[in-house]
Amino acid sequence: MQRYSDYVPIYSDDSKFDSHVGSAVVFPDFIVAETLHSFCSVYTSELYAIYLGLLKISSINFKKAIVYTDSRSGINALRSAKHNNHPLVMKCFDIHHTLKNTKITYCWIPGYGGIPGNENADKAAKNSNATRETFVHLIDVLLAVEFSQHRI
C-alpha cells in the first residue's frame, strides 16, 4: 500500500441479502451507494460498485486512483474486458480508457479483513436505500425466472 501512497484510495463493495442488493464506493471525502434490483447477482453488484467508482473518477480530476475491491471475479473480468460481453465490464472498460490523464489501478483486498475503507463500503452497500432500483442485468432476470420456474 505504501507504493500507492500518492493514489486516491477508493473502496468498492456490494451487499446481497434477502431481497436487498446494494453497491457502494467509498472515496476519502464522500460515499456513493445505490440499491439494485433484487434479481441482480453478487457478480453484477460487485461490478456495479466498481462502475460507480469509475463514473465518479471521470467527473473529478484525479491524477492517480486505486480501486480496492474484494471481488477477484470483478478484477479478472476487467483484466479480460476485451473478451467479456457483460455490459458493466464493457462500460468499465470504456470509462477506464477514456480517462487518459488518470492512472487507475485495481487492487484485490480480502473481504472482512478489517480494512476500514472496505468495511465502510460494505456498510454503505448494506445500508443503501434508494427510492428506485437502479440496475438489473438481463442475465440476472433470466436466471431469476428460470429459478422460479423450477420452484413451481
UniProtKB/TrEMBL annotation:
MF term (GO), any: RNA-DNA hybrid ribonuclease activity
SUPFAM superfamilies, sorted: Ribonuclease H-like (SSF53098)
Protein name: RNase H type-1 domain-containing protein
Domain RNase H type-1: 4-130
Originating species: Araneus ventricosus (Orbweaver spider)
InterPro entries cross-referenced by the UniProt entry: RNaseH-like_sf, RNaseH_domain, RNaseH_sf
A Pfam family of this chain: RNase_H
